[in-house]
Amino acid sequence: MVILGGGESGTGAALLAQSKGFKVFVSDLGKINEEYEKVLLNAQIPFEQNGHTNERILKAKEVVKSPGIPDTVPLIKQLDEMGISVIDEIEFAARYTQGKIIGITGSNGKTTTALLTYQTLKKGGLNVGLAGNIGHSMAAQLVTGDPDYWVLELSSFQLDRMYKTAIHIAVINNITPDHLDRYNYEFEHYVKSKLRIIQNQTEKDHLVYFADDEVITNELKQLNAPAQKHGFSLKNPQESGGWLENEEININIKGNLKMSIQKLALQGKHNLNNSMAASIISQVLDIRKDVIRESMSDFQNVEHRLENFMTISHVDYINDSKATNVNSTWYALESMSQPTAWIVGGVDKGNDYDQLVELVKEKVKFIIALGANVENIHAAFGNLVEVYDASNMGEAVGLAYQNTTKGDAVLLSPCCASFDMFDNYEDRGNAFKNMVRSL
Prior knowledge:
This protein has helices at 8-19, 34-42, 54-57, 74-81, 89-94, 110-123, 138-142, 156-160, 187-195, 214-223, 269-284, 289-298, 326-334, 357-363, 374-381, 393-403, 425-438, and strands spanning 2-4, 25-27, 47-48, 62-65, 85-88, 100-105, 128-132, 149-153, 169-172, 206-210, 228-233, 241-245, 248-252, 256-260, 307-312, 315-319, 340-344, 364-370, 387-390, 409-412. The chain is built from 17 helices and 20 strands. Helix 2 links the parallel strand 2 (25-27) and strand 3. The protein is of the alpha/beta class and 439 residues long. It has 3 domains: 2-90, 3-Layer(aba) Sandwich (Rossmann fold); 97-298, Mur-like, catalytic domain (UDP-N-acetylmuramoyl-L-alanine:D-glutamate ligase); 307-438, Alpha-Beta Complex (Protein-Tyrosine Phosphatase, Chain A), CATH 3.90.190.20.
């Protein structure tokens, strides 16, 4: 078995494959992180880095591919043409679990919903693991144990190479344009990718979805999905699911559960959706109502997602580096109640900025454009507010500091991928926080 990519998922898949008796080889086109290199060396798993030996890879019976490697890469195309199975780490790991899988996808809110669900199920006394696009590799965890339930955050890239994995409770938070550069700039291809989460569901399984999202509801009408359906809505009561009414969340799966939105740890419209989705999952799995209420009220938000981490000279600095698409940034701007200096930019993935125009008019004091595609930001917003250019994060934070006054906020919500200047969104968020601390 060949593993392409020596990161978290690849190293985990290699460890599990070795434990199951496979002859394993790991190949990475780039440099393998020192942490994972040590793991592979200690496990005596052969690997190569800074290039692929194609002849060796093309002899594999099966290949586990890192989700970060596009299907359009010539090596992947060649593997597909030769009929060699290419799968994701989750697809491989799922073969070796007896646990029930709760899979959570969507353009936004996956991480928060997954963490909320994981915390609530743990508090409810269930034996539960957390993996996927968050935390440690599912495959690596399976080497030492197999929980009764798995909460998996699933990106479209992971779902693209998942074929037989059975998802007991599937969650689709929303579907808005994202990662279109990976889908030939065709939104419909991205939508189909997200809907793969329900491809193996039966009438014994559950589908939790955002009922206000017309893309999702239209697709479900066409697919005639067999799973038991539970919608959540900010507008309308649901026969089975959750909804907002009179400043309360109502969850109606197995008896009615009500929670005041003022008591929720996570505020903002998008977080109402995340809280409803996690509460519905918890009710499906018979978690007590008092445990659900407690979890929703004491949850600590994930780092790099609207993280209000420091105030300097009466100006709030907010790290939303995880916002890598327009919809995610829309929620961030919508939640702002102060005049906002907005730091935006990076690798534009085919963004349509039009939907942010009204929020920029209403909320944004000025913009700091950072990264590879600043010309798109100028074109979208240059006639609305002042747009400054910054060549690095230190300069961006300096411009924000110089041009804000008491009562303002500085929001890093990039709306773009980070790979032009940073390793990932965490690296970008940490750079922002370090620059702010240096003030």
